[in-house]
Structures are given as C-alpha cells and as structure tokens.
Design goal:
The chain is mostly helical. It is built from 11 helices and 4 strands.
Amino acid sequence: MTIELFLQHLSNALSLGSLYALIAIGYTMVYGILRLINFAHGDVFMLGGYIAFYAITFFFMPWWVGFIVAFGLTGIFGIGLERIAYKPLRSSPKISIMISAIGASFLIENLATVIFGGRPKGFPIPSLFDHVARFGSVSVSYISLVIPLLTAIILIALLIIVMKTKTGMAMRAVSTDLAAARLMAIDVNKIVSFTFGVGSVLAAVGGVMWVVKYPQLNPTMGMIPGLKCFIAAVIGGIGNIGGAVLGGLLLGFIEIMIIAFLPTLTGYRDAFAFVLLIIVLMVKPSGLLGKNQVEKV
C-alpha cells in the first residue's frame, strides 16, 4: 500500500471515527448520570436526520437553519422521552428501565415507519459540503474535514461545561451519588433533563452529519450506528467522555483499515466492532479509560 493510499484511508477512518464519537458521547453522558443504557439513542439519531430533511425540503429552510431546527427539536424530544419513559421508573430495578428503553426504541422506529414511510429518501446535500479538497494525490470531501473539527469543538465545549461550570459540578455530583446530590439541594430532575437534552442534540448532530456524508434516510438507519456507538462507548470506558471519543476513533480506524488491507472481508465489516468489544472486555472490562466501579444494590 502506497503512502497516498494509506493517507486516503486514514482520512476516511478519522471521519467515520469522529461520527461514532459524536453519537457515543450521548450514550456515555446518560450512563454517567443514571447508569442507564439509552437504547433509543440510535433512533434519536435517526430523527435528527429526518427533521433536517423535512425542514429543508418541505419547509424550504436554508440548510443551516434546518440543521439548527433539527438539533433543537431533537433535544426537546430527548427531554420528553426521559420524562415519559424513564423518569417514572427511576427508582425501579435497573432491568425495568432497560426494558423501557428497548420498548421506546421499537416504538420510535415503528412510528417513524408509519409517519415518514419505509421507502428510503435521498438527503439533499448542501452545496458547501459537496466539494472535494485535494492534498497532493489525496482527495478529502469537505464533510470529512468538517466532522472531525466539529467533534473536537464539541468535546472541548463539553469538557469545559462538565469541569468548569456549576451545572457540570452538579452533573458530577449526581453521577457520584444521586441521593446525596438531592440532600445538597441539587435539582436532580433538571440535571437529568439537561443531560438527556445535550445527549439528544449530539445524536442529532451525528445523524445530520451522517446523512450528509451518506445521503440516504430510512426509519431503521440508527440501529447499526447506534449499536456501534454503544460499543465505542464501552470500549473507551462508558461514563467517560474522553473514553467515548477514543472508542469511536479506534472503532472507525480499525473498521476502515481492516477493509483497506483485507478487502475480501468487507462483508464482515460490522462484525469487527463486536470482535473488538470482546477483546477489550476480556483484557480490561472497565474500558480503556474507564474505572472499576461497584454496582450499588
């Protein structure tokens, strides 16, 4: 493999890994606060793409306005989902809230099929992203340059919020001990809603970037990316924001590079994520950047 071809694959891996990282951050934030695996996160990712599609094609909004509307409405949807499906079960056994998350996922997918139709739709790519930058013999689409930059900006912003603000301090307190946080006069409901809102916005950002890069929409499009991003969060250390980004980048890199070196294995592309998950859990069950925790009974 020539150096030019390697750099081409590396740019693709960085773009895909950054997309995985964006979605995985939402998984890890919710788990860090509630110890909940939000299995509907991939479907929230799908809704972000559909809202942007209809905002641009049906309401004729400029693409950037449509994107902002998609991010905002998806964030509100995430907050509503938490209030309806998860909040009533917060004091119930973990298995109950997990079943509720799985049920919410199936409900969203089937409602999307009824409302949006099962036929795939082509997403209108904004002209800004429909260009290719050339670095010598390496060609990189503009969207592949935007995605890693956007992921880096979001990561820095989240770390500042979590580590430097009162809201972030409250999030860390709720993550450590929810009952004690209540005794310290922290509005737990507000913090949980904020976390779900931010996580859903990140899912929407990932969903919109995904359909710009791979311009096809369907109601089940969030299933495999959502599962892979959950795997990325676990690999990096679920509950750790930096770990989610590391897991997403690692997953994207391995997925692209194995196909590049062994093209005959392209049909097994999705299986690589599960193999990597098994290897990491055997070697370091808490994830690459995770800490061992004892589950409270």
